[in-house]
Prior knowledge:
The chain crosses the membrane at residues 29-48, 80-99. With 103 residues, the chain is mostly helical. Helix content is 83%, strand content 0%. The chain contains five helices and no strands. The chain is rod-shaped and about 60 Å long. The two termini are 14 Å apart.
Amino acid sequence: MSNRIKCIALSALVLPGLGQLYRGSRVKGGVMLLLDNVFLLGGLFIGLRSAGKLMVAGKQGLTPEQVLAAIQMDSPYVKWLLGGFMIVWAYGVVDAAFFKGDN
């Protein structure tokens, strides 16, 4: 398997930024890993917060419509986080394929 294919696979399938690190671009790979973790952890935080609203809904006697409205208030943030992650992911794959590093 060639270096180029390994870098594309690392960035596309495992985590964006790993292909850049493999090819020798430490700063770019580190920044991409940092951004990916921020997007993923932010999405996880919002998802867990929404799950918490579902768990306490039964105890508080909320209707399904009220719970859904409370969860939908978080949805704009999820869309931005997912969009940011997809942009970094796509950039990582293209950059890993065409970056001319030392390796």
